[in-house]
Write a structure and sequence with these properties.
The chain is α+β, with helices and mostly antiparallel strands. It has one domain. 33% of the residues lie in helices and 27% in strands. The chain has six helices and nine strands. A hairpin with a 2-residue loop joins strand 5 and strand 6. The chain is globular and about 35 Å long. The chain starts with a helix and ends with a helix.
Length: 147
């Protein structure tokens, strides 16, 4: 499978929350709108052992403009009120700017270790075994949080 196809592989999309983003090419800032219903569904099924996979679909260089972020690393960012209505549900405006994920000014998380061009991220994109997925998520979270 080609690297640019990994984010859209059904086996990956079923296990992780995949979001297409808008991209500001001059700043390489990614913008997404994670939906509460999807966060709640993944949390109910996997606890915090899933990832937000964020990429820009307008380029074939998904790894340069993509992140696979363990939810446990950014879970606290979603404890703030919604900042955008979405049809019948709610969602947050979130962005990644220079490797820092945030939903609000108050809560920012360095996710630069979760960029798509990192070896552990590529391994997670290909992982099929639940134990391997959980191990890679824990390794990414520890690496990103400095532990």
């Amino acid at each position: 499978m080609h690297p640019e196809e990994l984010f859209s592989a059904p086996s990956f999309r079923d296990r992780h929350y995949v979001l297409k983003s808008s991209l500001n090419k001059s700043s390489e800032e990614l913008w997404v709108g994670p939906a509460r219903s999807r966060i709640d569904n993944f949390s109910a099924t996997y606890g915090s052992a899933f990832a937000l996979a964020i990429y820009h679909a307008g380029t074939r260089d998904h790894f340069r403009y993509g992140y696979v972020i363990p939810f446990g690393l950014i879970r606290d960012c979603f404890r703030v009120p919604f900042n955008r209505p979405l049809g019948k549900g709610n969602c947050w405006n979130a962005n990644i700017n220079r490797g820092v994920f945030h939903v609000t000014i108050e809560k920012r998380v360095d996710v630069s270790a979760c960029r798509g061009d990192r070896d552990d991220v590529r391994k997670l994109l290909l992982a099929q075994n639940e134990g391997e997925i959980r191990e890679l998520l824990a390794r990414l979270e520890a690496s990103a949080s400095g532990h």
